[in-house]
Amino acid sequence: MRTRNAVGRFGEELAARYLTTNGFAVLERNWRCELGEIDIVAREGDTLVVCEVKTRRGLGYGSPLESITYRKLVTLRKLAGAWLQCHQLRPAAIRIDIIAILLDKNAPPRVDHLRGAA
Amino acid sequence: MTLAQTWSVALVGLEGHLVEVEADIAQGLPKTSLIGLPDASLSEARDRVRAAVVNSGERFPDRKVTIGLSPATLPKTGSHYDVAIAVALLAAAGAVEVASSRRTAIIGELGLDGRIREVRGALAMTLAVSRSGFDRIVVPELNAGEARLVPGIDVYGVRSLRQVLALMRGVEVPDEEPVRAEPRLLSESLTRVPEVDLHDVIGQQEGRRAIEAAAAGGHHLFLHGPPGSGKTMLAERLAGLMPELSTEESLEVSAVHSLAGLLNGEAELVRRPPFIAPHHTASLSSLVGGGSGVPRPGAISCAHRGVLFIDEAPEMHPLTLDTLRQPLESGFIEVHRSAAVAKFPARFMLVLAANPCPCGLSGVQNAVCKCTPQHLARYQQRISGPIKDRLDIQRQILPAAHRGSDLDPSEPTATVAERVQLARDRQAHRYRSTAWTLNSQVPGALLRRDFPLDAPSRQLLEDHYASGRLTGRGFDRVMRVAWTLADLQGTPQPTLDQTHEAFQLRTGDPLTPYTDHRPLKGPTP
Question: Known SUPFAM superfamilies for this protein (chain A) (predicted)?
C-alpha cells in the first residue's frame, strides 16, 4: 500500500511540475470533500482545469488512461462543482483533464496530457 | 496524422465492392468504435486488431479511435477487414506512411499474435480490386495462389501484420520476404487426371451411351434402376468425359469455389468441370445458396459448368428438388436476403439417379417387387413433371445379371472424352455465329429454322407427336439430342437412326434399331 501511495504521490508531483512548465497556474492540490478528492486544480487562461492524475509503472494492466471509467468521470464532474461552490468562483469555462504518467525504470517518465476528457 | 484511410473489399455474392476503411484518432478517453454496418464477426475485429497491433510491437493509440467503413449503407460481414483496419489505425497514429497505401487494397484476418489468416472469396475480391484500377493487393499468403490468377494486379502474399507494415514502410520485410507475384501461366495447371475411369464399368452399353451423349451435348440425365446396378458409378464418370474448362469458365468456377471455401491453400484455377453430389437430405438453402445476412453460394453454384448429381432423387423433398427448375432454365440463381441480393452462376448439368420403387426391385427379372401400385405411383411422382421434362436422356440401368455377356474390354475415359471433345468442337463450329455453344442450349426455334431435320426424321417425330408420346417441348429436346448423336458420329445431319435413338433416350425405351412400325397409310375418310 505504501509503495502505491508513493508512486501516486510521485506522479502527482510530476504532473504539477508539468502543468506549471506549460503555463498553467496550479491553484490547489489534493482537495478533498465527502465526494472524493481532486488531484490538481489549475487555471489555464480563463479556464478552470480539474486534473486527475493517474500513474502506472507499466502497461501490464493497460495504459493509465484506460483506468479512467465513465463513473470516475461523473465523480470528477461532481467534484468540480463542489470545488466551485466551496470557493464561490464562476470561471468562464471549466474543463476536466486527465494526466497519465507512465513510469519506466530505464527511461524518463512519459507524461500524456488528455485535454477535455468528455 | 490523426486521420488515415485504406481500402478493402466487400463481397455481395460474387460481386466485389471497394470499401474505404477510415481511422480517426481524437482527443478523448481510450475507446474504439467501429461503424459502417458491421456484423458480429466484424465487430469483433476491434479486439482482434487491438491484440494484433500490440503483439506486433506497435503502440495501440490510447485515445478515442473511430473506424468507419464506407459506403456506410452496405452491410459488411466477415473478418477480412482486420488488416486494413489495423493499417489505417497505425497510419492515423503516424506509425506508418499513409501515402504509400493509396492504390493498395488489403484483405486478411488477423490472429491475436499478428499472424494473417486466410479468407474466403479472395479470388472474387481480387477481381473486383483489379477492375477498379488498383495497382496492388495485399492478401494472406495462403490466398496468394488464387489471387495471382487475376491478371493485371500485383499480389503481395503476407504472413503477418509485421510484414505488411515493413512493406508499407519500405524497409526489409522480416521473417520471409513475401514474394511478388508473377502472373501465372494458366496452361501450367491444365493437367489433372480424373480419379475414376470409365474402364472400370463393365458392360452397361446403354448407360455408357447415355453419359457420352449427355457429356457431348450438355443434356440433363436421369438414371434409374435397382440398387447396386451402377448408377452412381456411371454418374461419377460423367464429369471426366467433359472437356477442360476454358480460361473464362475456369475463373468463374474458381471464384465460386473460393467463396464457398472449396479451394485449398495452394490453389490453382479449377480446370476440370466440378462434380458436386449433395445428399438427398440437403436443405433448400444449402442447395441454391443462402444463409443469414449476405448470402453464400449453394451446391448448384459450386456445380457451375460441371455436374450436379443427386442420388436417390425421389428421397429428396419435392419442394427442394423443384427449386432447381428456375436455375435449370436461366443458368443463374438470385438469392434474396434481408441484407443483400446475391446473384450466383448456376449453369450445371443435372444428373438424377433413382430406384424404380421403394424396395428397388420393380422391373427386375426374377425378382418380386413388394411395393403396392399406390406406393409405386407415389414414389415416382416425387420427381415433379417439370423437372422430369427437362431431363433429355433417361436410361434404365440394369444389374449385373441382366447386362448381357459382352466381355469386350470397356472403353477407357480418355477414348470417350476424345469423341466428346470432337462432338463439342463440331457444335461450337456450327453455332459459331450464335451466342450458344452446346446443343442443349440452343433455342428450339433457331434449331428448326437454321438446322432443320431431314424429312424422314421430322416425319418420325411428327408421328410420335401425333400419337401423344411427345410433347411440343419434348419435340425440341429430342431434336437437340439427335444433333448431339450426329455430332458424336460426325454425320453432317441427324440421320433417321439417330433421331430414333434420341427419341428412345428421352422416353427411356430400350435402345433398338429403327424399324418402320408405321401403319400403312390409306386415304383417310
Answer: Restriction endonuclease-like
Q: Residue A76 belongs to a domain with what CATH number?
A: 3.40.1350.10
A63 and B27 within 8 Å at the Cβ level: the answer is no
Residues of A in contact with B29 (CB under 8 A): 65-66, 68, 73, 98, 114, 117-118
Is there a contact between B29 and A118 if contact means CB atoms under 8 Å apart?
yes
| Domain extent for A32 | 2-114
* Integer Cα distance of B274 and B189 in angstroms: 15
Within a domain: residue B522?
no
In a domain, B515, yes or no: no
Tell me, what amino acid is at A75? T
Domain assignment of residue B448, yes or no: yes
The residues, ordered by sequence, that sit 6+ positions from A51 with a Cβ below 8 Å of its Cβ are: A15, A19, A38, A39, A40, A41, A42, A96, A97, A98, A99
Range of the domain at B212: 198-411
Mutating which of A52, A65, A74 best tests the B interface, going by the most B Cβ atoms within 10 A? A65
Look at residue B321 and tell me if it is in a domain.
yes
Q: Measured between CA atoms, how close is B1 to chain A, in angstroms?
A: 17
Buried b (16+ CB within 10 A) or exposed e, B17-50: ebbbbbbbbeebbbebebebbbbebbeebbebbb
> A87 to chain B nearest CA, in Å?
28
ipTM computed for the complex: 0.73
Q: Residue B374 gets which letter from DSSP?
A: H
Question: How many Cβ atoms from other residues are within 10 Å of residue B384's Cβ?
Answer: 13
The type of residue at B399 is P
Measured between CB atoms, which of A63, A100, A117 is closest to B28?
A117
- Asked if A68 is an interface residue toward chain B (Cβ–Cβ < 8 A), one would say yes
Task: Quote the minimal CA–CA distance from A117 to chain B in Å.
Answer: 5
Q: Is there a single domain that holds both residue B110 and residue B62? A: yes
Q: Which of B159, B184, B209 is the last residue of a domain?
A: B184
Q: Is A77 within 8 Å of chain B by CB?
A: no
